Amino acid sequence: MSLTPKHFTLENLTIATGVDNDRLLVEDLSLQLTRGRVLALVGASGSGKSLSCSAALGVLPPGVARIGGRILVDGEVRPAEMLRGRTVATIMQNPRSAFNPVKTMREHVMETLTAIGRSRRDAEGKIEAALREVGLDEPEAVLGLYPFEMSGGMLQRMMIAIALLSEAPFLVADEPTTDLDVVVQMRILALLEGLVREHDLGVLLVTHDMGVVARLADDVAVLDHGRLVETASVDEIFHRPKHHVTRMLVGAHLARYGMELAE
Amino acid sequence: MSLLRAENVAKHYQTYSLVGASASRMALDGVSLSIEEGETVGLLGRSGCGKSTLARLLCGLEQPGQGQVFYRGDDLRHLTRAQRRAFRRDVQMVFQDSVSAVDPRFDMRAIIAEPLRHLTDLDARAREARIRELLEMVELPAAIAGMLPSQVSGGQLQRVCIARALAPRPKLIILDEAVSDLDVHLQASAIALLAKLQKSEGIAYLFVTHDLRLTERFAERVVVMDAGRVVEEVPTGSLAAFKHPASLLLKDAVLPPLPEMRAAAQ
């Protein structure tokens, strides 16, 4: 693996549950993340979006297993456990439940850095810069806070700051703004957009909101009942959707604006 | 006479623990709002602006610290037994989180039957017929009646909550972010359903949301709240007329419909 990988690839991922893994939840999913681009993974609730992310990070829940497929970085097969936190950072949906209520922000940062084997001295100087970069303007004060002392927007910025500190070239963002206030959502999306450009991040953006896709994504993959039904550029998806599931998603999204899908 | 009217209501919350009382937080600071029969009002605001608190005061779940809420001209605190029953029947509420809004041990039949048992004079047979009718109204199969909340999807459960609200033939339904958590195609069909029911049953709606797109498509007038106060009220047709900074912030936060409109959205 080169020091600065260009691609993160999921190849023919199959995820199953049940006795003898006889119930397939995700089937033959292949996706590729490229540095500097945002790939949106969209689909209805229960289509397997979040499971696919968990599989990519090697954190599938008990009773669910990956029964096929490979994860590659620049064409080389890697175990998900080795990539998590180092090559691929994560930000999650509910910032409130993602933090330990009895630990300060500083302890969270240290815990993450220790877990991925980064030396503290190396990172220490970068912590304040990372916090400032995500819009937490008083880093010293923020680092002393507990989760309950912070708003949902601040916590989400903190989670993004920790992801940045890991210096991972790829980022999995699972519904990063779904639980946030609308005004905060817009600011976080703008922040993510800037960071993708600044750090040349390759992002897997999981969302059910086509508005978020329109705002941030370069490419879109559409999942339906655990199967990939369409992959295309964001313009293709919004203007010339092919599969009926994609058409339904985009059509229902546009209807909220009183617009219709072009035939 | 308005169906429901809040006059200059205020509400503050305070928590108490072993070490004493916390600072009190003003959730509502002198708000007035009236809802007429058959109309749809959008109540728009950011998280924490007090819109849900106002909704809870309006349907009598909580009492205002100051000010009054009137149901057909009578103060909620001084309703007679018969008036209170009529109020409970006429004003229904649907919440955002359908899972926590139902008893996990009730099947769908029992969930919908609850208001029928308490607020109507229907006997068991008539209730069963009404339940079937309601399930049909919200486009759910009759077979779902025997299922538990854990056995149905979030979208289905929210429709059952809408059916429960419709059950006693209310005059007003307060929807507190009731469709926000649904997938966008389910959201579209839920709104179409609500609009259809409004035509056939003449129900008024108070649509509490942070999403301008929903009120724009659905409400006749929009009331904007910020920091516990009503800051602006405009007919839906003229959202372009928004002047208050809080309204403009919400307008700017609407996600773009199409990728090429990104720049316009910023």
UniProtKB/TrEMBL annotation, chain A:
UniProt domain ABC transporter: residue ranges: 8-250
InterPro entries, alphabetized: AAA+_ATPase (IPR003593), ABC_Ni/Peptide_Import (IPR050388), ABC_transporter-like_ATP-bd (IPR003439), ABC_transporter-like_CS (IPR017871), Nickel_NikD (IPR014138), P-loop_NTPase (IPR027417)
Keyword Repeat among UniProt keywords: no
Domain of life (superkingdom): Bacteria
Keywords, sorted A to Z: ATP-binding, Cell inner membrane, Cell membrane, Ion transport, Membrane, Nickel, Nickel transport, Nucleotide-binding, Translocase, Transport
SUPFAM superfamilies xrefs: P-loop containing nucleoside triphosphate hydrolases
Pfam families documented for this protein: ABC_tran (PF00005)
Cellular location(s): Cell inner membrane
GO CC terms: plasma membrane
Molecular function GO labels: ABC-type nickel transporter activity; ATP binding; ATP hydrolysis activity; nickel cation binding
Recorded topology in the membrane: Peripheral membrane protein
Family affiliation: Belongs to the ABC transporter superfamily.
Protein name stated in the entry: Nickel transport system ATP-binding protein
Species the sequence originates in: Afifella marina DSM 2698
From TrEMBL, chain B:
SUPFAM superfamilies named in the record: P-loop containing nucleoside triphosphate hydrolases
Sorted UniProt keywords: ATP-binding, Cell inner membrane, Cell membrane, Ion transport, Membrane, Nickel, Nickel transport, Nucleotide-binding, Translocase, Transport
Annotated GO MF terms: ABC-type nickel transporter activity; ATP binding; ATP hydrolysis activity; nickel cation binding
Record's keyword annotation contains Acetylation: no
Location of this chain's protein in the cell: Cell inner membrane
UniProt domain ABC transporter: residue ranges: 4-252
One GO cellular component term noted in the UniProt record for this chain: plasma membrane
Similarity comment text for this entry: Belongs to the ABC transporter superfamily. Nickel importer (TC 3.A.1.5.3) family.
Function statement: Part of the ABC transporter complex NikABCDE involved in nickel import. Responsible for energy coupling to the transport system.
The name this protein goes by in its record: Nickel import ATP-binding protein NikE
